[in-house]
Give the backbone structure.
Amino acid sequence: QVQLAESGGGSVQAGGSLRLSCAASGYKTKESCMVWFRQASGKEREAVARIDTDGTASYLDSVRGRFSVSKDDAESTMYLQMNNLIPEDTAMYYCVAGTATSCSSAQWSDFVLRGQGTQVTVSS
């Protein structure tokens, strides 16, 4: 069964760090576009960080310099290292995977393979 499973969420104080993992089973992450999305309560879902099929990483402006996305194809796992967390980072974080075409738009609706999410809560 092809699926993505996120882990690593939790509650931290502002300034703290968390490392999220997205483990893929039945799916090869090499040459895949993989994205971390987040959705805070009452807000629209947004793409936080992504790794394109060529390995290029890109970030939402508000997290650039604090978050780092990486991928271990041997382990079929994508990571999101989040440092210097702020309360505005509080959200449910989801990972998705797709093709180069999916990455060209980086829209949630273009990714068929999605995880169930992991909650990140940052207190001030």
Q: What stands out?
A: The mean pLDDT is 95.
